[in-house]
Amino acid sequence: MEPIPLSLRISGKGREQNVFFLFLIVLVAVINIIYPQLGWYMRYGWAVKGDSEPSEAYLVMSRISSVVVLIVLFMALLSGAF
Predict the structure, then answer these.
(1) Is there a contact between 37 and 53 (Cβ–Cβ < 8 Å)?
(2) Are the beta carbons of 10 and 27 closer than 8 angstroms?
(3) How far is CA 25 from the centre of its chain?
């Protein structure tokens, strides 16, 4: 029995879907770096009555996590994972 390869190459329509999702992930990460308040308002802001804003720690960690996602994605693209 032949082992299943760890990385399967997708061709045709599946590859186009990968490119779309990669673009979507990059877009969301960049928006989160530029305007992290948007993510907070979409997740928590609507449930809070009155004026409430995210903490500075939340904003910093949101930006840092987005930068990490972009770095990991870039490294994966360079390695040929996609």
Answers:
(1) yes
(2) no
(3) 4
